[in-house]
């Protein structure tokens, strides 16, 4: 079976390499040359407005009229936000990258660069609390919102009796269509370990969904004007370069890729 998947992966490399070459080069050049220049003196609101005109599939939340709309975006723990800079997929260090990606349809993905979990979330406006139900860990946590702005959120996990302030930051924007977000749950089901062995066809489908995730990932990097591109923590059987993509050797596959499947043989 591995041979079948290997053949498909190799054929896929040939078919999409030219397509990815354009996307990868654009993303990498963009991340190196077009990072925000803090010394330019350009008003940040003006920059946002200009960028909004060229990224019509994004919603900037500085005009949001309710807390649920502001909450419905990607949030990263402030202490972890800069930790990806300089981290590559070959980095040996294990770092926490605590994050929530809340969709405005009530679904969410948690920590997709670590041990990913997912589930449902809800917001109680009167109590100013977020209730989170995870699927894999089967946990329910209730967070009290101590502070919320377009790009900053402070939570207190009252569900476990904690009094610690947890500060999260965001870009203050989201995709109009949740399906365009690479960290939307429907774009990450290929990462969920199956409960039984799969057919060759199902494994091929899982590989295709994995490739589609990275197409969305690159599009998101460009649309959101991300400061840098990092593949750290994202499972893959491919090596990503500015000039194309290459299939990793079997002995170079990381554990987080293998655990996307029923077992190592599959």
What does the largest sheet look like? 8 strands, antiparallel, barrel
Estimated structural class: alpha+beta
The helix content, as a percent range, equals: 25-40%
Lateral strand order in the biggest sheet: 2-3-4-5-6-7-8-9
Regions with pLDDT < 50 over 5+ consecutive residues?
Answer: 21-43, 45-54
Gyration radius over CA:
19 Å
Shape: globular
Order of helices and strands: HHEHEEEEEEEEEHEEH
Q: Ends: how far apart?
A: 7 Å
Strand runs, count? 12
State which percent range the strand residues make up: 15-25%
**Arithmetic mean pLDDT:** 84
Number of helices: 5
Structure overview:
The protein has helices at 2-33, 44-54, 67-71, 200-223, 255-258, and strands at residues 58-60, 74-77, 99-102, 107-110, 117-124, 129-134, 140-148, 152-157, 165-169, 173-175, 238-241, 244-247. The protein is α+β, with helices and mostly antiparallel strands and 266 residues long. A hairpin with a 2-residue loop joins strand 11 (238-241) and strand 12 (244-247). Helix content is 29%, strand content 23%. The strands form three sheets. Strands 2-3-4-5-6-7-8-9 form an eight-stranded antiparallel barrel.
Short description:
The protein has helices spanning 2-33, 44-54, 67-71, 200-223, 255-258; strands at 58-60, 74-77, 99-102, 107-110, 117-124, 129-134, 140-148, 152-157, 165-169, 173-175, 238-241, 244-247. It is of the alpha+beta class. The strands form 3 sheets. It has an 8-stranded antiparallel β-barrel with strand order 2-3-4-5-6-7-8-9.
